[in-house]
Amino acid sequence: MNTTNLMLCAVSAAALDICALILILAAYVERKTSTKKWRRSTGGMELAEQNAVYPLDCDEILIGRHASADIRLPDISVSRYHAMLTISDGLWVITDIGSKSGVFVNGNLVQRAILRENDVIKVGTRRLVFRKRRDKRDR
Prior knowledge:
1 helix; 139 residues; 6-stranded antiparallel β-sheet; 29% helix; single chain
């Protein structure tokens, strides 16, 4: 009787391990697939400045000086909560969310603007370029 119970326990443990492995593999495949879909729908864009690159990896990105900002620009000319980047139907939009110095796109003061590749965004004294994401090999 003891041997039978041990065998059943061993078989159950092996079955659980196999189920866990299948779930892990399925999650990995789903993540890879969703990352490809995300890159396709967002155009694989990023914001770049002279010494930093900020990948646009979610559908709502807060730009500001505050520690909670998704893109944190620790510069006194940047408001704590300066601007919001959002994507909808494949279009990236930047919106000024009450900053003191404003948001400029290609030299024009904007409250809200649809972004296009190579647009230059000025937030405080920071100059960010909205561009296609570059491969790590290109850096």
